[in-house]
Automatic annotation (TrEMBL):
Keywords: Hydrolase. The keyword Hydrolase applies. The lineage of its organism: Bacteria, Pseudomonadati, Pseudomonadota, Betaproteobacteria, Burkholderiales. It comes from the Bacteria. It holds the Pfam family Ppx-GppA_III. Residues 305-465 form the Ppx/GppA phosphatase C-terminal domain. CDD domains: ASKHA_NBD_EcPPX-GppA-like. This is Ppx/GppA family phosphatase. Residues 23-297 form the Ppx/GppA phosphatase N-terminal domain. The keyword Hydrolase applies. It comes from Undibacterium danionis.
Amino acid sequence: MFAAVDLGSNSFRLHIGSYEGNAIRVIKSARDPIRLAAGLDQQGNLTAEAMQRALACLAHFKDVLAEFPVDAVRVVATNTIRIAKNAAEFLPVAEAAIGLPIEVISGEEEGRLIYLGVSNSLAIPAERRLVIDIGGGSTEIILGRGPEIVKVESFPMGTVKHSANFFPHGRISAEGFEAAVLSVRSLLEDATPAYQPEFWRNAYGSSGTVRAISDALYKNGFGDAQVTLAKLLALRDYCIEKGEIDALNLSGIKPERVAMVIGGLAILIGLFQELNIKILHPIEAGLRMGVMWDLYLRSTKRDRREQSVLDFLHLFRVDAGRANLAADMARSLYVQLKPANENLSNYVYWSALLHEVGMVVSHTGYHKHGSYLLENADIPGFTTREQKLMSRLVLSQKGNLRKIGDAFSDLDFAKAVLALRLSVSFMHSRVELDYKDFSLKMKNKIELELKQDWVSLHPTVAFWLRKEIECWREIGVEFIVRARV
């Protein structure tokens, strides 16, 4: 059983699902219209009121989750928390409220998860498709074929800001709609050539916004549930005729959602016009379903992150032999250090594989370049927090350790750094480790015991170890090397 919590810009949502017969069946869902994006002040900070609404919702979700024997949970935050200037202040208290880590995902990762949910729900293996998700703070456009993503982009336009900017005080006018649609088209125009109908067979709308507009069309006499430009323009004209959001009487749309639907309608019209969409099929699956599928795939050892790391290696032309040697040693050394749990094991391995990606920029200071790339690149499957963790590990692979700051208060992280640094040094010395030749421990101090003839067999190891002893001494950690017969 898996659970997905989506901290969206308009609503917070929870899905709990069970994998049954090649599908995930939702057995419990919850939703709270937090309107987080509307809670950003003029300086881009979440207001105290918005944060309190969010915390109350998260505490409720915690109670709901406690009622189910859930195997894995992911809490993902999207656009508003991505851009909120005081997100660092909000996240710790939010994590305390729900009792789980919150992953702030990039727009591209959001799009990947959306597509994962859609493709598994459709289960049409070779279909070329376009998927659109209009959220409260951003819009994701994904081009794919069957289960594979060809291209994904996230655009900073969402229903909350669009409604506030172009329909102020709830006034609806032809001029406001025209400006809202032109704004969308101007944001899209450079990207649109890649998403034209020649590259896909069917188009799907995955978000609550698209489904709400579809319901509005069907339940208010504009035609069936399939979305076309003619129907959207007819709904637009109806809204302009009414003139005020409060005057709209749209069956099937809750009154508090009407303003968001109007902003979403303008965005959708712009998408239809710029991408030359004829018919858009609404679909129930989206981000939350994608998160649950991602959890299921991880549980079956089909982790998207593994492929992303290999793709990153290829993209930056890393020497695979050196990367694999360092990664295998780092993982083995980390196991020998006996961490309190296995939480960092994969990240040690992946960071070692990627430790030389910065060489594509320069051989001088390549660890700094690699650290920057890992923190700022779009790496499918990884959250912002995970990329920052690997960025820090790659930065720590050489040079002084003061740059890591207070991270060494976590002993498992310190062990991860030690394993990575030694693996890189041994790789440079062309060492093939035989773990009967040495033992490695770390608690209050580092203790490395080597066979007496080991250093003579690998002459440069002595050089690297002298440097390593000095680096750890600089941060107050004693590093003792002993020889044994």
